[in-house]
Design goal:
Layout lengths: L7 H10 L7 H17 L5 E5 L4 E6 L5 H17 L3 H10 L21 E6 L3 E9 L3 H17 L1 H4 L1
Antiparallel strand pairs: 1-2, 1-4, 3-4
Helix pairs in contact: 2-5
């Protein structure tokens, strides 16, 4: 299922367009359940996590996932909450600059990782509220699952918010 990595421009465009009018526990549940359906339909061995800096709003661990996926999800979402961009965009920007997560950036690799699979919950006129994370597949596939779910979510405004 692995697809090619999106460009930095494509990743930035995703973040500009996939913006919530508002976000609360009910929206987190809707997005989480949509991701859960996509992951179940694909038999994807993933962990799904939706969180704010201080609170988990949705969490699911599917068959085949492992405790290590929870740690990857935490590290990916830490990047989103710190940098306010998707973990994949941060990773691609670092790669293009010949850099990586580490002490030179003040980021402990045990707490942060710039692999794809965590996406900012950006609220219009507010900013980044939290992170939506998938962990268990290839980096590009984790990212794509979130973007596909959000695009579907926003295409159905009656159920979106």
């Amino acid at each position: 299922m692995t697809s090619s990595s999106p460009t930095i421009e494509e990743l930035a465009a995703q973040e500009e367009t996939l913006v919530f009018a508002s976000f609360d526990e009910a929206v987190a549940s809707k997005v989480g359940l949509l991701l859960l359906k996509k992951a179940t339909d694909a038999a994807a061995p993933v962990v799904i996590n939706i969180r704010t800096p201080s609170r988990t709003l949705f969490h699911a661990a599917l068959p085949g996932s492992a405790p290590d996926n929870d740690h990857w999800a935490r590290r990916k979402s830490n990047v989103v909450l710190r940098k306010h961009h998707s973990s994949m965009l941060v990773g691609e920007c670092l790669k293009s600059a010949g850099d990586s997560i580490g002490p030179a950036l003040g980021l402990d690799p045990l707490e942060f990782t710039a692999h794809g699979g965590s996406f900012p919950i950006r609220v219009a006129n507010c900013g980044v509220f939290g992170a939506i994370t998938v962990s268990g597949m290839a980096s590009e596939d984790d990212h794509r699952m979130i973007v596909d779910a959000l695009q579907e979510f926003f295409q159905h405004p009656a159920t979106a918010q």
